[in-house]
Amino acid sequence: MANTSSSSTIRAHIDVQLFHYIVKIGIGTFKTKPPYKEYYLDIDTGSSLIWIQCEGCTKCFKQTPSPFPKEKSSSFQPILRDNKHVQYQCRYEDGDNTNGILDRETFYLRSNTGGLEKLENIQFGCGLDNEMQYGDYKNNKIAGMIGLGWDDIPFVKQLGLKSKGKFSYCLPVVSSGKTPSTFLRFGDDIAHKKNSKSTPLYRREKKSPYYVQLLGISINKTRLNISPKVFAFKNNERSGCMIDSGTHYSRIVTHAFDVLKLELEKYFSRFKGLKKIKGNLGLEICYQRSKPDGFNNLPDITFHLQGSDADFVMKAEAAFEVVGRFIPIRLREYFCLAIIRDNVESIIGAYQQTNHMIIHDTKNKKLVFYPEDCSKKS
């Protein structure tokens, strides 16, 4: 269990690598200064395992720095059952997977006073057979994943009194170009604001992801004609609406997506100088503009969630991707709805969560959120 003797709070600075939001964490005990090695881990609320690629991996993805040298850390403890290493297997929805052994190790996070907090005996996975798309990126610095999902041994639960079952994050817009000063926070380090909204969090079939009840969608302030039943949970089937920091673009079930697509086409038909095109981002609803205009004249999109006034409002920057396109002599620009269709379930992804403070309160089973400029200290 984590060391909870100190009264200060713990946090981890959030950074970005392409479409991934990551945190830097110190791991292990070495005869060096500092006495640990630092690694970036991908923030994933859709899974519960904390794991890192370890030295000795038989299938490894490329990363900087080199994999975690477990044998050289004096605080590394393999978890044994009947004198054998306890193994884990974890497969993600996109086909990525990691296999290895479960261990305990000392982790280091920052405190609100600027110092370090030592967290002992944290259970994590040492990845020895890993297939992750991170390795395809040039100079990939992601070494593993910090699973914050709803399970028996997630990081949040292992922090005990330090987390009080709560964590929060504020995801900056990737294209803002600013270095974010925003943190993954736990417990008493989380600030609630008067304008915050909340919606119940659901767990399904004892699995890791967090689910919310999506009831409808609006473009600007016009509610679309979509029955809440479209988003409802179905017994023992993938269905409903997940909120997941590990999914980049949000997904909407096909029937609702078709209504949204039709209404957006009507909305954009009123503007001159727009031409429907096929974008190259894997997104379906794209337009080229005759004059670059950034996010101007693009509508807000609102997800109506269960609860009184639990409207999750996405400004244009969180609802659309805008891409500059160079054509000889003239600069062209196109934009796409940054949401894709899905046959079975809806997901509120990381792109749509940007510029919101998102608080997962697992004890009270609720998601609290409010708008926030995540490029500023948050």
Description of the structure:
InterPro entries: Pepsin-like_plant (IPR034161), PEPTIDASE_A1 (IPR033121), Peptidase_aspartic_dom_sf (IPR021109), Plant_Aspart_Prot_A1 (IPR051708), TAXi_C (IPR032799), TAXi_N (IPR032861). Belongs to the peptidase A1 family. Keywords: Aspartyl protease, Glycoprotein, Hydrolase, Protease. The protein has 378 residues and is mainly beta. The protein folds into two domains: 154 residues, Beta Barrel (Cathepsin D, subunit A, domain 1); 175 residues, Beta Barrel (Cathepsin D, subunit A, domain 1), CATH 2.40.70.10. Strands 1, 2, 3, 4, 5, 8, 9, 10, 11, 12, 13, 14, 28 and 29 form a 14-stranded mixed sheet that branches. A four-stranded antiparallel sheet has the order 17-16-22-23. Strand 1 and strand 2 form a beta hairpin. The longest helix is centred in the last third of the chain and has 15 residues. The protein is globular, with a radius of gyration of 22 Å. The N terminus is likely disordered.
Briefly summarize what is shown.
The chain has 378 residues and is mostly beta strands.
Structural class of the secondary structure composition? mainly beta
Number of helical regions: 4
Taking the sheet with the most strands, its summary is: 14 strands, mixed
Residues in helix, %: under 10%
Oligomer: single chain
CATH architectural grouping of the largest domain? Beta Barrel
Structural domain tally: 2
Mean pLDDT, all residues: 90
Q: Uncertain runs with pLDDT below 50, 5 residues or more?
A: 1-6
Give the percentage of residues in beta strands.
Answer: 35-45%
Write the CATH fold name of the largest domain.
Cathepsin D, subunit A, domain 1
Kindly provide the name of the CATH class of the largest domain.
Mainly Beta
Radius of gyration: 22 Å
| Global shape | globular
